Amino acid sequence: MSLTGHPNCRRTPDTGKFIIAADTEAVCLPNEEQIHTWVKEMDAALTSGIPSELIAQYCADNPESALVPRLMEFGTNAQATISARKLSEIDYKSLEKQNFHNFLADHGYRLKAPFASWELGVFQASTGTWINRESGMYTAGAVGSPARKQDNFNHVYIADAGNDTVPEWFWNSLDVWHVRHKGITAFPFIFKHLREYGERKVQLMS
């Protein structure tokens, strides 16, 4: 294959030189340490159960919460502790339910964690972006919509200009990303454009 047909190859028009962005096949991993901590906390809470008085305290502090009737029912049928598995059936989707689970976690009984939260979650590294000019590296997502599955974690790419320094205009071009479904997909927009241009040229030649 010629360099001009390479989807991640960029030719400098004024010099005729090439910059190749190669996939190192290294992937960006989530925050494994935080995941381990949260899972240990959840295991501990599931084993010990939740003190009934803690649930009563939440209900007293949040009388307007829509969760109160359900929680009071749990408390009525329990002794000193309430089954953590029953309480874990309350999901972590709405803000109100998140506040409830955060209250439990603050008191040492974590049943849920913000794994998917962009601000507090642990998967940003697998779908986020970074550029390191000094090392010549940057990250880009897999083809298709962004996902938090290992086979779709962002890959680390390295830009190679041979004996020359990768020019600043190349790094600046990476600031423009192709966005789909509020997330980064295949690669920086410049490479999306080049891939589509290359596919178009092949179609015209066939």
What does this structure look like?
α2 packs antiparallel against α3 (68-76). The strands form three sheets. Strands 1-2-7-6-5 form a five-stranded antiparallel sheet, with no helix packed on it. Strands 3-4 form a two-stranded antiparallel sheet. Strands 8-9 form a two-stranded antiparallel ribbon. The protein has helices spanning 32-48, 52-61, 68-76, 84-87, 95-106, 124-127, 168-173, 189-205; strands at 9-11, 18-27, 50-51, 81-82, 131-132, 137-140, 155-160, 177-180, 183-188. β8 (177-180) and β9 form a beta hairpin. The protein contains eight helices and nine strands. The relative contact order is 0.16. By secondary structure, it is of the alpha+beta class. The longest helix has 17 residues, at 32-48.
Order of strands across the widest beta sheet? 1-2-7-6-5
Q: Strand percentage, roughly?
A: 15-25%
Quick one: biggest sheet?
5 strands, antiparallel
Spatial extent as radius of gyration: 25 Å
N→C terminal distance: 16 Å
Number of helices: 8
What average pLDDT do the residues reach? 79
Per DSSP E runs of 2 or more residues, the count of β-strands stands at 9
Instruction: Sum up the overall morphology in one term.
Output: elongated
By secondary-structure content and strand pairing, the structural class works out as: alpha+beta
Would you identify the regions where 5 or more consecutive residues have pLDDT less than 50? 1-7, 182-186
- Helix share bin: 25-40%
Order of helices and strands: EEHEHHEHHHEEEHEEH
